[in-house]
Design a protein that fits this description.
Blueprint: H1 7-29, E1 55-61, H2 67-80, H3 85-105, E2 113-121, E3 124-131, H4 147-154, E4 157-163, E5 166-174
Antiparallel strand pairs: 1-2, 2-3, 3-5, 4-5
């Protein structure tokens, strides 16, 4: 440290710098959530704790950072409608792939919005992922490009409708009789 400047002054300066870096990181990441013990309600939960849901209707930015909260919402829906762990993960993977495709391929320059709707229709769960962009080719890598195969492997039905105003991916999953 510099001669003539007290040590506590340098500690104070470094403390302010560290606090500023933490605040900038928190702003960049959107939020800092600390839950040391029990799970607290989150603002992106589809419903308050204790309230069972049987549908989702989400509109989110076409940004990869939304995938985590979408997957959490889908897991909550799957649990609330009584899907077992295997079918729950199948739903999360397939719908997550549909959303990922919309994020990666729908919008050229400006980020658009993605709509995810999930609802029960009789004994079938219908999940729709809709964008308002136009298809664009993503990075050409050998290990990529299997999302549609995954969706078809995990869901009972996969329909894709592409129009001049966007694409809708419709996934269907048969529900167990007792649900």
């Amino acid at each position: 440290m510099s001669a003539g400047v007290p040590s506590f002054f340098w500690l104070l300066i470094w403390g302010v710098i560290i606090a500023a870096v933490v605040c900038l990181a928190a702003t960049f990441l959107g939020q800092i959530t600390i839950t040391p013990f029990a799970r607290r309600p989150r603002p992106d939960d589809p419903a308050p704790p204790g309230v069972r849901i049987d549908r989702l209707d989400l509109t989110v930015p076409a940004d990869p950072r939304v995938l985590r909260s979408i997957r959490q919402s889908l897991r909550r829906l799957a649990s609330d409608i009584g899907l077992d762990a295997e079918r729950s993960e199948a739903l999360v993977v397939a719908a997550g792939e549909a959303v990922s495709n919309a994020i990666e391929h729908a919008y050229l320059e400006a980020r658009g919005r993605i709509h995810l709707r999930a609802r029960r229709v009789g004994t079938v769960l219908v999940v729709e992922v809709q964008d308002h962009g136009r298809w664009r080719q993503g990075a050409a890598e050998e290990h990529r490009g299997h999302g549609l195969q995954l969706m078809r492997a995990f869901m009972d039905g996969v329909d894709i409708e592409t129009t001049a105003v966007g694409t809708t991916v419709r996934l269907t999953l048969s529900l167990p009789r007792a649900v």
